[in-house]
Amino acid sequence: MNAQGNVEPIARAPQPIDPRVRIGHVHLRTTDIARPRAFYVDVLGFDVVAEARDVPGWGTTGDLLFLSAGGYHHHLGFNTWKSQGGEPMPDGVAGLHHVAFNYPSRALLGDALKRLRAIDHPIRQAADHGTHLAIYVTDFDGNDVELVWDRPQEEWPRDAAGHVQMAMDDGVDLEALMAEAG
Hints:
Blueprint (H helix, E strand, L loop, with lengths): L25 E4 L4 H8 L5 E11 L2 E9 L7 E4 L19 E5 L2 H13 L6 E4 L3 E7 L5 E7 L23 H7 L2
Parallel strand pairs: 1-4, 5-8
Antiparallel strand pairs: 2-3, 3-4, 6-7, 7-8
Helix pairs in contact: 2-3
């Protein structure tokens, strides 16, 4: 960790991006906005900020859905402009691997797991990456989602030079995690 409390990179960009830049939102294609609404609103608990039908976009019209956690204009956007009635993205092609949602506590990550278990939603993987616990699932459109709780930075595993060392340990006690949710 450097003097500002940030991770020390193993390589620096020749022209670094301003460190205040943050990812604002992710916008995904869907075949029908009812599908992400059912998963992200009804199961995970995001709020609906905007929902509209037959909206022009990208040379066509389609439906859109904007979702938020905590009042931001939108963390997630969904549209059907190029995908209405289509098939989910198959495995084995280039594209977005997953979207990650960071929960502020282990208990809230456990609550997300309880919500998924309540509808018997499959868990693809649960992993302890050293820096964070992760639960991997697939939404109703085939998009992969990582639900995450970050450990405090001072607990992250590091090598002798101070660089973060990620792990792929599948030994997460899901029952204990759900118990923390109460």
